[in-house]
Amino acid sequence: MARQPRSLAGKIVAITGGGRGIGAATAAALAGQGAKVAIGDLDLQVAQATADRLGRDVVALPLDVTDRSGFTKFLEEVEGRLGPVDVLINNAGIMAVGRFEDESDRTTSHQLEINLHGVIHGTREAVKRMRPRGTGHIVNIASAAGKAGFPGGATYSATKHGVVGLSEAVRMELRGSGVEITVVMPAIVRTELASGLKEARFFSSVEPADVADAIVKALRKPKFDVFVPASLDVMNRITRLMPRSVAEWIVRSLKGDQILVDAERTARADYEARAAASAPGTDRETAG
Questions:
Q1: Angle, CA of 122, 128 and 134, to the nearest 5°
Q2: Which CATH superfamily is 12-287 part of?
Q3: Catalytic sites, residue numbers
Q4: pLDDT attached to residue 284
Q5: What is the pLDDT of residues 182-195, one digit of tens each?
Q6: What's the CA gap between 49 and 275, in Å, rounded?
Q7: Residue ranges of the domains in the chain?
Q8: Is the CB of residue 96 less than 8 Å from the CB of residue 155?
Q9: Which helix (H) or strand (E) holds 252?
Q10: pLDDT tens per residue, range 36-64
Q11: Residue 202 pLDDT class (50, 70, 90 cuts)
Q12: What is the pLDDT of residues 96-148, one digit of tens each?
């Protein structure tokens, strides 16, 4: 007998980077399912506006995922206000584009701290809370760049490969514990992060709501690896069976290797400036 989809009504969900983009769309989708959602975001004003729009079962809290103790306190506050966390969605992330040799150490550090170290810490804290209860679900937002390297986004690709590897390893450690884990790998998502990126054949962009819907489906019927759109899974499987030279030729012929390289820098200026200021915890550690 096929398993019935799980109800999300009354579930306590914490989302990092939930004020905008995928995080906000996911908060809306889960609130629509009856979940109680805590949005954590560095920009509390934006997070509060999102929470106000979504209704009384959504709360906004300040969160800098690069501040380890602050991240832990965020989860403690969520549990104090709403109850034990059933679902943690590690969504916060930034992307800087450009030639690898031109990237500053600060930019590298920020991407590593937010995209990877933040996910590692969040995942660990969630496991500590969920394993003793024998239930829970962790969702880590990676990227199609977590399965293939994209020129113009070397460090970003490295961080997302790290998220995929982390999720695969933790999945095996959690086997039989009752705690689920999902890694989500979207293509280009039409958010501020993707400002100035051009589309390529078979690398068409998707809406944040598409990713949110995929997350909801994975929570209701647990699934580990989730590609958005689903066609990315097919392409990934096919290219993995080919010699590297052939697989890379296919990517080049579809201009997939130009998606980040050809980014319009002026169109990304506002986003990149905000992203550069989005890891204050890292700068405090560096300054100290």
A1: 120
A2: NAD(P)-binding Rossmann-like Domain (3.40.50.720)
A3: 156
A4: 52
A5: 999 999 898 888 88
A6: 20
A7: 12-287
A8: yes
A9: helix 244-253
A10: 999 999 999 999 999 999 988 899 999 99
A11: low
A12: 999 999 999 999 999 999 999 999 999 999 999 999 999 999 999 999 999 98
254-268 pLDDT tens trace: 777 778 888 888 888
Q: Which residue in 190, 191, 197, 195 sits closest to 270, CA to CA?
A: 195
Contact status, residue 58 vs residue 39, Cβ threshold 8 Å: yes
Q: In terms of residues, how long is the chain?
A: 288
Q: Which two tokens stand for residue 18?
A: 């939930």
Residue keyed to tokens 């690069």: 66
The sign of the CA dihedral 48, 84, 25, 167 is positive
Instruction: Report helix, strand or coil for 201.
Output: coil
Could you tell me if 84 and 125 are in contact, meaning their C-beta atoms sit under 8 angstroms apart?
no
Closest CA to 205 of 261, 256, 280, 150: 256
Name the one residue in this structure whose structure tokens are 């113009």: 152
- What the block records as the tokens of 118 is 């933040």
3-state secondary structure 38-100: EEEECCHHHHHHHHHHHCCCEEEEECCCCCHHHHHHHHHHHHHHCCCCCEEEECCCCCCCCCH
Tokens of 180: 């689920």
Do β-strands 58-62 and 36-41 pair in parallel, antiparallel, or remain unpaired?
parallel
- The pTM for the full model equals 0.91
